[in-house]
Amino acid sequence: MMRSQNWQIDMGKAIEKAEATPFAWGSNDCCLFVCDVILAMTGVDLGADFRGKYDTREGAEALIGFATDGGDLELFVEQMCRQNHMPEVEVNFAWRGDVALHDADAGPCLGIIDGDGAVYLSEKHRLLMIPRGDIRRTWRV
Prior knowledge:
This protein is of the alpha+beta class. The protein is built from 4 helices and 6 strands, in the order H-H-H-H-E-E-E-E-E-E.
């Protein structure tokens, strides 16, 4: 997967758009936020098969379970990254724009590396910056 020439500008615009849009399962949640940022940076929509197919947390979990044969979000991300040639990298070596996973109160959550941490879309707080030390896994975009 190749980042566009202006990927950093496009990434910033995608993050701003997500922050200005209310959280909504199936259109603007943590997973689709990451997919939107990747789409902006690369032109590849990893969320195309899932957009609009759920509208609750339970619906998202059911879709993930179906896609992974009973697995969870972490397994889903592993599979999507492997299928799209996005290798896992050490958290300390993750670059701006890479995918990040951390454990939130409600379970695993996806974000995008930006500076010394990662930006996450939260149902309660819109965008949150999570310090790099709290990130558990990362994948190269």
